């Protein structure tokens, strides 16, 4: 078993000797400045402007999605996507307990109740077997399976591609189809990640992305809804832009809707970032390769590589530490003391204050992942330094 000091040395060997190395720092260059200035000069800084359309088309092209609808952030994207597949107040939505809190919050914003399920050891994502257990125990209802334990309709399943590593999405969609439950993919972390060449976020009825400052591509704050379905895409745009009926001057709105638009100013930043995405992805992979080599023969530490058959964007590089939460905490302390910004996985959602009294499935794998994982500096370009 290597010591915390060895681990600090190994990371330093890959990322260089800057006194402070952030976990994931955005790269803003001349292209970004030029586009944002262009947007400012146009005065179209808000809800109207060409950058939004350009960014939507760029993301659709990059992911292969038929439609991409830009919105204010990943959380609002997920809330609207859930409403679009028919999730309503009092329904239940299956989510991984190992996720960022936004996954559960988006469910709660619809009035539905999250049901937290265990993770998969290899992919870090939602366990397909654990979902199958919940669905098999459900009884048949008029509009989908009813969770026998809670009496709630299971209205959607939200898999998440943790740290950018694709979960077993094709298998999950096949299972969900069997039970007639729509899948909404939380691909907030996985822009650039694919399974057999197919982009994450395009397997479910809808998928969502986030462009928050810590994601692989940032618009400052922003999100995207992806779908193959023309009608759902139209409705996503309508619902996120106040449901206004087109008219030269009248203000007529045909449903209770949201102002979840992405401002043009943010989209301008996104257009510039998107041009650099292939380079970011290449550099992420080079960094991951550096860590793989560094940790190859280290006892008690295992680098988390992309699952077999997938291409990960390696959004956050991470290692698993043997020795339980005490060893994990020692590594967090030593690395952060040494100027290496490292973080644990999120506290499991079924233990967070707003969600801790809800029924959930057993979570042995998610517990083990939480107690052993340390995310390590992942800014693209670090390895070259
Ligand atoms: C970042 C993130 C979100 C939410 O995105 P915001 O743009 O911050 O609202 C949702 N789910 C996961 C898994 C995320 O990592």
UniProtKB/TrEMBL annotation:
Family matches, as SUPFAM superfamilies: PLP-dependent transferases
Active-site positions on this chain: 215
A Pfam family of this chain: DegT_DnrJ_EryC1
GO biological processes: polysaccharide biosynthetic process
CDD domains in alphabetical order: AHBA_syn
Annotated positions of the N6-(pyridoxal phosphate)lysine modification: 215
InterPro entries per record: DegT/StrS_aminotransferase, LegC-like, PyrdxlP-dep_Trfase, PyrdxlP-dep_Trfase_major, PyrdxlP-dep_Trfase_small
GO MF term set: pyridoxal phosphate binding; transaminase activity
Keywords: Pyridoxal phosphate
Record bears the keyword Disulfide bond: no
Record keyword Phosphoprotein present: no
Family: Belongs to the DegT/DnrJ/EryC1 family.
Name this polypeptide is given: Perosamine synthetase
Species for this entry: Microbacterium aerolatum
Source species taxonomy: Bacteria, Bacillati, Actinomycetota, Actinomycetes, Micrococcales
């Amino acid at each position: 078993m290597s010591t915390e000091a060895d681990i600090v040395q190994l990371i330093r060997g890959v990322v260089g000797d800057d006194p402070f190395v952030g976990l994931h720092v955005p790269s803003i260059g001349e292209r970004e400045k030029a586009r944002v200035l262009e947007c400012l000069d146009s005065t179209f800084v808000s809800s109207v402007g060409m950058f939004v359309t350009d960014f939507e088309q760029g993301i659709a092209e990059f992911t292969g999605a038929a439609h991409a609808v830009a919105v204010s952030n990943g959380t609002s994207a997920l809330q609207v996507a859930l409403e679009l597949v028919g999730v309503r107040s009092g329904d239940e939505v299956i989510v991984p307990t190992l996720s960022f809190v936004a996954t559960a919050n988006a469910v709660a914003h619809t009035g539905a109740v999250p049901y937290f399920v265990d993770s998969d050891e290899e992919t870090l994502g939602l366990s397909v077997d654990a979902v199958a257990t919940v669905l098999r125990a459900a009884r048949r209802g008029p509009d989908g399976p009813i969770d026998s334990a809670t009496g709630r309709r299971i209205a959607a399943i939200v898999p998440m591609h943790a740290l950018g590593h694709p979960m077993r999405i094709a298998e999950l969609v096949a299972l969900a189809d069997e039970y007639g439950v729509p899948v909404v993919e939380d691909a907030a972390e996985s822009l650039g990640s694919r399974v057999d060449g197919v982009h994450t976020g395009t397997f479910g009825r809808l998928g969502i992305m986030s462009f928050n400052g810590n994601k692989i591509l940032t618009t400052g704050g922003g999100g995207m809804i992806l779908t193959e379905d023309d009608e759902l895409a139209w409705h996503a745009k309508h619902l996120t832009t106040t449901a206004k009926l087109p008219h030269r001057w009248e203000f007529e709105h045909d449903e209770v809707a949201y102002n979840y638009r992405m401002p043009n100013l943010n989209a301008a930043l996104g257009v510039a970032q998107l041009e650099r995405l292939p380079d970011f992805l290449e550099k992420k992979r080079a960094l991951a390769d550096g860590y793989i080599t560094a940790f190859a023969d280290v006892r008690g530490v295992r680098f988390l590589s992309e699952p077999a058959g997938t291409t990960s964007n390696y959004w956050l590089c991470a290692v698993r530490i043997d020795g339980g939460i005490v060893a994990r905490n020692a590594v967090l302390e030593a690395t952060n003391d040494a100027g290496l910004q490292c973080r644990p996985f999120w506290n499991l959602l079924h233990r967070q204050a707003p969600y801790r009294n809800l029924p959930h499935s057993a979570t042995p794998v998610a517990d083990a992942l939480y107690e052993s994982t340390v995310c390590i500096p992942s800014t693209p370009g670090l390895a070259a330094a």
